[in-house]
Specification:
about 10% strand; mainly alpha; about 60% helix; two-stranded antiparallel ribbon; 2 strands; 6 helices
Length: about 120
């Protein structure tokens, strides 16, 4: 199969555009925080203290990781007075961009021959 350089460059560009979310999701500590937030089961949001209690991380470290998840478009924050509640509400454009990039990579891989040597 012959995949054009243009197709490969398009995939590289899409991958580059997804780096922020891939980095956010690629960290083991952030994966743990996401899982704990899901397990807490509060769709209205959770506070940093609640997440910290479920992790081995310090409160400042949890806050740092939450900020990265927010910057990547995975979390949002709701303010009630001086309290902040973090919840999942991913930016749909960011999520669609990631899904599109993964689907494009999958389509390219389906066209490639077996290169394992087996």
């Amino acid at each position: 199969m012959n995949i054009s350089k243009e197709t490969i460059q398009d995939l590289a560009n899409e991958f580059e555009n997804c780096q922020k979310i891939l980095i956010a999701l690629g960290d083991e500590n952030r994966q743990h925080l996401i899982l704990e937030m899901i397990r807490l089961g509060n769709c209205n949001g959770v506070r940093v203290g609640e997440i910290t209690a479920k992790s081995h991380l310090s409160r400042p470290a949890v806050s740092h990781h939450i900020q990265i998840l927010k910057d990547a478009g995975l979390l949002k924050v709701r303010h009630e007075g001086t309290k902040n509640f973090y919840y999942f509400d991913a930016d749909m454009d960011v999520m669609n961009q990631l899904i599109h990039m993964l689907m494009q990579a999958k389509e390219i891989m389906k066209q490639l021959p077996d290169r394992s040597g087996e």
